[in-house]
User: Fold this.
Amino acid sequence: MNNALNKDRIAWHPALCSATLFDLRADMGALVFEKEYNLNSEPLKIDLLIRKGDSKITLKNEIAAIFRTHNIIEYKNPNASLNIDVYHKVLGYAHLYKSYGKDVDSIPASEITISFFRAGYPRKLFQQLCDDGAVIRRFAPGIYYLEQTSSFAIQFVVINELQGESHAGLKVLSSTATIHDIKIFLEEARNCYSKEEKDLISSILNVSIWANYRLYQKVKEDYEMAMNAVVRDFFKDEIQAIIEEDLRLATEKATAEGLERGLEQGIEQGIEQGIEQGIEQGIEQGTARGLRIAANKYVERLLRKHKYDYEEIADLADVSVDYVKEVEKSLLVLE
Assistant:
């Protein structure tokens, strides 16, 4: 893929937030999530703040085992560094957050945790922290606790080292994601039906597909329906409106035809058959036209990026190369 590895422009943070929420969805009833939480009127933002309603509740996900009442999440994308200065910056965020309580010590330091998420193992940072007297303890594969260094409970989540199927959303955002990781995530995605879950999945896939394009090409044949659903989700409202409009028009037309035929075959029978045919015809026509429009818009979006050749766009949009060229012609006419 042309420039496929130019990942600096990928919007990692929203997808990483979505992946964390997706990983913790079994515990959502006990947690409150606030993305880009503003510390004050100045531009200081926490990537994700998770509040735990009842400190006595035991959470299911091992990443959340450390959680207390107030939980600060800091993400570093695969291209960003997690160094000693970043560590102290986030520690500063935690101190500021504690100091902004309504009353003195209304947010106890013992009820605040900090979680750093990073794809790779932060070896240099860990060495510096240990030189300063800290102790690094491996709690679980990919999860490390920092001890004897702060009044806050601190953990590091190394995404590349996470094991098991419960972290699929995070693992597919890693540059070392495997075909197995992607298949597990797509299987989980197929079994999610709520709007909230679908929104999270769409956010994750929108980044994961660009970051791991060639892997998705390899699993596309077996998981074509799940991947095509991503494209449909981008334009689901427009597609639904088109389906409903075509259904209405086809039903009206079929009803009129049914009335005419009803003079010969019996009014009641004719109307019933006409409406039934109209509904089937409307759904079929509306769905087909809606998906064509979705495919056109998806191809237009890829063409405007100027990053992919015809064959790559055809593979991504699941259309022919000729189809891509026709869309490009229409763009040139419009522009």
In short: The beta strands are 31-38, 45-52, 70-76, 112-118, 135-140, 143-147, 153-158. The chain has a mean pLDDT of 78.
